[in-house]
Amino acid sequence: MRAYCYFLFLLLALTPVGVSADSVKQAAITIIIDDLGNNLPAGMRAIRLPGPITYAILPHGPYSAQLATAAHNSGKEVMLHMPMDNNQGHPIGPGGLTVNLDHNSFEHRVNRAINSVPYIKGVNNHMGSRLTRDPVKMNWLMAMLKKYPLYFVDSRTSSDSVAGYIANGNNIPNLDRDVFLDHDTDPEAIAFQFKRLLELARKQGAAVAIGHPYPSTLGYLENVLPKLDAMGISLVSPSGLLLMKNRKLIPDRLASKITASVPTIVEQCRIIEQVDVTRVNCS
């Protein structure tokens, strides 16, 4: 079975699923829309965006499961947007992770959050400027994600985050956020940040953006996303970006910010199975 899995992985490497031959020559971007789960109309509008946008959904929201199901049924990738402690003292929402939790309470909250949002392929942090600096708590989190398995995207709400470093140490495929599209929700500011995203993608080979279901953000993306191919830009999910990196479809010198670490063929098969690239029995 392992020989079969290895053969299938080689086949996938030679024939990328969901990544066209043209896209290999293009810079790649990933766009994640955060904070879904509390507003149904805004969430549904976000899900109607064209292309493989990814949706990070808060746990325990009134519409979290409904929006996750709608995104999945639309062929979009779903993530858990895990609330985490921040330095500003802002409320983080139900089921959030705080620095004062003991190990059992921490694991209980992570498990409940993961089980509250169907179809997730990965996790990113909601807020988290305090918790992502805590190596003990990040080790607890990554050890849990490895069991599912799920990838991790560091929203980089703190420049001192250790999440990516700890993820690598636990062999968790992971990415870093490069650009926040809508820290300023003015349409001109969003356009400026989107231009930064494209410039970084062309320089690095790939870049990751996070936005929110604000009317100005969704309106801008509705207009610009159909134009990406003409710009020479490929839009891919986090799973697609991780696979492109692992298959060397992004030049090594341009992939330094994409920190995926999957050391064995069996683990790679488990990740491929988890992200629905194909269905493989790697046992």
Quick structural overview:
This protein has about 280 residues and is of the alpha/beta class.
What CATH first level would be assigned? Alpha Beta
Contiguous low-pLDDT stretches (5 residues minimum) are 1-24, 252-283
What order do the helices and strands follow?
A: HHEHEHEHEHEHEEHEHEHH
Largest sheet: 9 strands, parallel
Give the % helix: 40-55%
Gyration radius from CA atoms, angstroms: 18 Å
CATH homologous superfamily label: Glycoside hydrolase/deacetylase
CATH topology label: TIM Barrel
* Secondary structure: number of strands: 9
Strand percentage = 15-25%
Average pLDDT works out at: 84
Ends distance:
7 Å
Question: Count of helices?
Answer: 11
Rough outline: globular
Secondary-structure map with pairings?
Layout: H1 2-14, H2 21-25, E1 27-36, H3 40-47, E2 54-57, H4 64-73, E3 77-84, H5 103-116, E4 120-127, H6 135-147, E5 151-154, H7 163-169, E6 174-176, E7 179-180, H8 187-204, E8 206-211, H9 215-224, E9 233-235, H10 238-246, H11 265-274
Parallel strand pairs: 1-2, 1-8, 1-9, 2-3, 3-4, 4-5, 5-6, 7-8
If you had to describe this structure to a student in words, what would you say it looks like?
The protein is an alpha/beta fold and 283 residues long. The protein has a single domain, classed as Alpha-Beta Barrel (TIM Barrel). The chain is 41% helix and 17% strand. The protein is built from eleven helices and nine strands. Strands 1, 2, 3, 4, 5, 6, 7, 8 and 9 form a nine-stranded parallel sheet that branches. The protein is globular and about 50 Å long. Mean pLDDT is 84; it is low at 1-24 and 252-283.
